[in-house]
């Protein structure tokens, strides 16, 4: 009996050692890169843009590649460039007088792990342009496809404009499911409280207009009420 207990204990120790080892050996995703150029909300004088970002690190010293996505919307769905490179830089020729959004994903090639950077916006300068449309609203709370408690929800967004002296106003759309209704088109604050019911799904959108009448159409976010 004693011999059997010893064998059992040894097996248990070996199992725990292997289990702990497997947890310690779990592959980690590479570090998140920092976007360096174009900087956030930059007005680029030239439309030939030398994108660059910091190098990622990997705890296992796996090979790292970088996937850069450049799009015309903050959700990165209207993509104009999607490339995977081994260096932390890439030069791209883009359209003039256009707002762009970009992100870099560091990819652990050996173990298929990845990490996303922030999304930065920038504007390419046009010929003879004196006023630029504001950037798309950055919807912050609630998160897209997130869950909230019933009662009241504070819709929160951010917005910016290359023309720093411009005054921005916001048009808020809100409604159940995919049905959006204009709530207010003269908002000057970047938040709005709405009432929501349990079990419902809601959508919302914010358009941004500057004092010259230039408008950017916002993305649509949805959330569900518990």
Describe this structure in words.
With 226 residues, the chain is mainly β. The chain folds into 2 domains: 90 residues, Immunoglobulin-like, CATH 2.60.40.10; 88 residues, Immunoglobulins (Immunoglobulin-like, Sandwich), CATH 2.60.40.10. Helices cover 10% and strands 46% of the residues. The protein has 1 helix and 18 strands. The strands form 4 sheets. Strands 2, 4, 5, 7, 8 and 9 form a 6-stranded mixed sheet that branches. Strands 11, 13, 14, 16, 17 and 18 form a 6-stranded mixed sheet that branches. A 3-stranded antiparallel sheet has the order 1-3-6, with no helix packed on it. Strand 13 and strand 14 form a beta hairpin. The chain is flat, with a radius of gyration of 24 Å.
Task: Supply the key terms.
single chain, 226 residues, mainly beta, Immunoglobulin-like, 6-stranded mixed sheet, 10% helix, disordered N terminus
Q: Helices and strands: which structural class?
A: mainly beta
Largest sheet: 6 strands, mixed
SSE pattern: HEEEEEEEEEEEEEEEEEE
> Low-confidence parts lasting 5 or more residues at pLDDT below 50?
1-24
Radius of gyration based on Cα positions: 24 Å
Number of self-contained structural domains: 2
How many strand segments? Answer: 18
| Strand percent estimate | over 45%
Give average pLDDT, whole number: 88
